[in-house]
């Protein structure tokens, strides 16, 4: 046992003693990054001093660490991709990368990881970019604490902030992404953790993922994105404690769920979105302890959604709580708090004595003739909603919360 | 005119009805805020109340005041005063005392609740402004009805009908029209339809604040321009002003031609 | 003082005045008489500008009343029904009317004359009809205008107040004012008026002194003279 420890120590010590540090600056012997990479041996560290380096197509093909001191600027001069990582065990830290080239045929990125493992990308600032951090067919990496500020105007000639493609076991944490096409984009990427990121004011989606299973999204904020967040064709994902805010517009959602099965959506806040959650073809999802505040529609169910359960959520001051477009209901609503509830609680057990019907007749009318939205909150509408409540004709009559809470749900 | 306004206002400020009205709002404000303890919900409930009740009370009160002060009006008519200033003065007296009751009745509990520190102050101010506009409009309409109908019962009947029509029936017809012509582009029609009814117009103004998320879900470009920019707010307020000025203008024309 | 030419007024289908021509000279007391619905009040209200005539011309003190309403500053008017805003106190009403027209000190004398001091702090809604009428009289007589129009001034007055009212009217007359009265109380009319105008079915049937009327109808007293006009016409 002791021998083994000694052996390990020797390995480590020799290792570090071999690892060199190469400095790059304008007046140093090594004045370009490419030169430094060529000179570096495996497990060396390259320190880049403050300054502007006009380089692109930097290929990191050996396991090295590149650290910037006081955010040196790497200016790609719009000529193409700037950094490409093709080796395992690469760390890139503390760089300011600007002017990524734009192309209609190739997805140039500020930093790309290709078929590599155990990479760390952290403390980068990316500006004037096409794609930001592009991870393809790479596993077990970390993307920490980066700031990506794009200036995208049109969808067709802009790229995504952080993109994962066929990459598993990636941790994306504490990043800030704004003004790109999709803030964070995942395709065919499983077992990833997306945590504590802020994705705001992006042209299309704050978060967009497809065919990506068993991922966890936690404590993120998605705010004021063109179309909110789109989650499609994925299984067993967990969305916990995220905030979806101020996604306004015709085709805009806090979150769009399409063909999502067996997911858990817990503790999220959907606030001031045109549609809080738009659900299509999604089954066996648990919605629990979410806050739906001031949305146009808190939840819009578009059909083919079965065995979902909405438990102990707060529906506060939404123009419409739930909207259905069919008369069939196979979903459960139980123990939610509805600010529009007008029932009473005689035995004071915190549960209203009259069931609540979250679907209003008027939401059907608006579905059919959208212009009628202008009559929202009219006394006439209240009267027809009331009559529908008393004897449901158009709305599913088993769509009820039998135990509506009389005080906000807490957890 | 200002002198008559002053006396009508004083007169109403002593009338028990002003206090009933004031007390009603005070009670409403207190119940909403202190029993419910939910400012956002209070503002929504208040909106419903203001949209429905303020026009009703404005109409009834306007008609009632006109008929009840008929002899007083005759006394004033016998004085060397301009007719239009007598009626406009009385009208303003009623409208202002109603507005006062509204502002104080709702304002006091809200101020005690800590309104000035709350973000809801804008929603609340908008509610009050809308309430005042509705009072001005419906009191003016009530005076118009009363000036055109010597018969008290008839006048009251028309006043209630007017309220019923604008508060409920109009929206029913409006809804039917929209559904019937749903194959056509309707966003302009629906906005114009809103402008033609002061209750709908005020409701829209409040929707701009409370339900902007839902309103922006609709595709029409006109809608978007209307609700997405300050354009809607400016147009709505301008039309509300027209809604006040038109009946007021008719009061002054009608009063000049009337026999007493 | 007042000159009326060809005055027509219709209320709906009801033709109330059918071409009234009347001129009233300066000074003196004129009584406008006639059966119910003959158009007395309409005539008076036309002069006051409260009723807009369909046709015809009215001049008061040489001014056409259509042109502007300033002539009304020269008229004191006692309306028939004295129903005031019930929430106001007597004192406040007097103050208000003074505020609306012009200031005067006459009111104090008149209040004393009609013994209204105890009522000054009472609300008008709590006063009896007679007291209200006294307040009404005070409001009318406290301004010093050359033309005074009294519509049924005696309504509800007790005998003492009636005497005071008569004195008041006489006093105004001696100041050279023109006073126009309508009344149903024939004895009152006979006592105070210098000249009468008798309206019948929207037209002036008779204008002249009471003596002339008696001569014309060959009746010994005023009441019978009036009665004979009515019965002759309806016969």
Automatic annotation (TrEMBL), chain A:
Signal peptide: 1-19
Domain of life: Bacteria
Gene3D superfamilies in UniProt: Single-stranded right-handed beta-helix, Pectin lyase-like
This protein's UniProt keywords: Repeat, Signal, Ubl conjugation pathway
Record domain Carbohydrate-binding/sugar hydrolysis: where: 48-187
InterPro entries named in the record: Carb-bd_sugar_hydrolysis-dom (IPR006633), NosD_copper_fam (IPR026464), NosD_dom (IPR007742), Para_beta_helix_rpt-2 (IPR022441), PbH1 (IPR006626), Pectin_lyas_fold (IPR012334), Pectin_lyase_fold/virulence (IPR011050), SCF-Subunits/Alg-Epimerases (IPR051550)
Pathway it works in: Protein modification; protein ubiquitination
PANTHER family, A to Z: F-BOX ONLY PROTEIN, F-BOX ONLY PROTEIN 10
Protein name (Swiss-Prot/TrEMBL): Nitrous oxide reductase family maturation protein NosD
Organism: Pontimicrobium aquaticum
TrEMBL record, chain B:
Membrane-crossing residue ranges in chain numbering: 20-36, 42-67, 88-112, 124-147, 159-181, 226-249
Keyword Zinc included in the entry's annotation: no
This protein's UniProt keywords: Membrane, Transmembrane, Transmembrane helix
Full protein name: ABC transporter permease
UniProt organism field: Pontimicrobium aquaticum
Organism lineage string: Bacteria, Pseudomonadati, Bacteroidota, Flavobacteriia, Flavobacteriales
From TrEMBL, chain C:
Domain (ABC transporter) ranges: 2-226
PROSITE patterns attached to this UniProt entry: ABC_TRANSPORTER_2
Organism whose genome encodes this protein: Pontimicrobium aquaticum
PANTHER family: ABC TRANSPORTER ATP-BINDING PROTEIN ALBC-RELATED (PTHR42939:SF1)
Keywords: ATP-binding, Nucleotide-binding, Transport
UniProt cross-references to InterPro entries, sorted A to Z: AAA+_ATPase (IPR003593), ABC_transporter-like_ATP-bd (IPR003439), ABC_Transporter_VariousFunc (IPR051782), P-loop_NTPase (IPR027417)
Protein name: ABC transporter ATP-binding protein
GO MF term list: ATP binding; ATP hydrolysis activity
